[in-house]
């Protein structure tokens, strides 16, 4: 059984959540105009590295890198096509004007920390794609504020949904520099082009890694377009200032953002690997563990 808040249950049973797909398509042109005008008035300048190349009648999962508050609005502007947003932020999206328009357009909420709700969201995504709807999926699951990862680790839920529906995956990279937002479209990723192995788990892992590699390549291509600079000219607090700025744009705390980063089951973070050192009493015998010698 899925345990949801009263407000979330109210939305799930609401008329707006049960609108017909054809009705939602009628709202799309209006929403696109409103979002595009607001992006322009907010000072955002979208710079395309290439054009989106889609020639298919199959449904599409738009897999987009996630960097900050404006990602949804910018993505809606650049895609132009109708989509259902997969969102793990019900508390901050629902109940305001932006949330209302997104819900009118089509939205699938999920609680990332609720396995049953996550499973239900994937089932809804399957139904949506099977009726030829498209999905906007920020597959990293949270804002990427990492110092050195172009794309955060990805769970393979998007691979499972694509396998069940025959949907194509379009990788899209966004990168933001103040009010300049760069967008780089990849090639359509078709999971049916890869022959399944006997070990289904390993097969899904290999596919999600291929997708992540493609998205990371798109990010690198954006970085390559930026003006070169000298390392000595980078302030020591550059990354922290970037993180502080991004977090200040929305209602999240840095801790909330980081708590949603996916941890692959086969990879142990260094904090976890060395947390046992906090429980060790330093002595001569174990001093080598702390990379120093103790006196006395």
> Whole-number radius of gyration?
21 Å
Q: Give the strand order of the largest sheet, numbering strands 1, 2, ... along the chain.
A: 1-7-6-2-5-3-4
Unreliable residue stretches? none
Helix-strand topology string: HHEEHEHHEHEHEEHHHH
What global shape is seen? globular
Distance between the termini: 59 Å
* Count of discrete alpha- or pi-helical segments spanning 4 or more residues: 11
Residue share in helices? 40-55%
Estimate the mean pLDDT confidence: 91
Could you give the count of β-strands?
7
Major beta sheet summary: 7 strands, mixed
Beta-strand level of the residues, as a percent range?
5-15%
Find the structural class using helix and strand composition: alpha/beta
């Amino acid at each position: 059984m899925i345990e949801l808040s009263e407000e979330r249950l109210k939305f799930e049973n609401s008329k707006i959540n049960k609108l017909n797909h054809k009705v939602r398509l009628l709202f799309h042109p209006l929403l696109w105009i409103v979002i595009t005008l607001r992006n322009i008035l907010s000072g955002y300048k979208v710079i395309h590295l290439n054009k989106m190349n889609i020639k298919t009648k199959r449904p599409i999962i738009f897999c987009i890198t996630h960097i900050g508050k404006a990602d949804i609005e910018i993505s809606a502007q650049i895609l132009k096509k109708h989509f259902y947003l997969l969102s793990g932020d019900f508390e901050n999206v629902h109940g305001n004007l932006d949330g209302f328009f997104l819900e009118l357009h089509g939205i699938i909420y999920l609680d990332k920390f609720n396995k049953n709700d996550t499973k239900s969201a994937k089932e809804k995504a399957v139904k949506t794609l099977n009726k030829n709807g498209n999905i906007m999926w920020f597959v990293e699951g949270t804002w990427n504020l990492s110092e050195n990862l172009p794309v955060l680790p990805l769970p393979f839920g998007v691979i499972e949904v694509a396998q069940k529906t025959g949907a194509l995956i379009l990788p899209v990279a966004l990168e933001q520099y103040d009010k300049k937002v760069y967008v780089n479209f990849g090639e359509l990723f078709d999971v049916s082009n890869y022959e399944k192995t006997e070990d289904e788990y390993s097969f899904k892992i290999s596919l999600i890694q291929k997708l992540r590699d493609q998205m990371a390549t798109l990010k690198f291509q954006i970085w390559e377009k930026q003006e070169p600079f000298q390392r000595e000219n980078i302030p020591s607090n550059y990354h922290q200032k970037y993180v502080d700025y991004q977090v200040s744009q929305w209602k999240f705390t840095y801790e909330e953002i980081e708590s949603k980063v996916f941890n692959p089951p086969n990879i142990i973070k260094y904090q976890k690997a060395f947390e046992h050192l906090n429980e060790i009493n330093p002595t001569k015998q174990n001093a080598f563990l702390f990379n120093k010698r103790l006196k006395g």
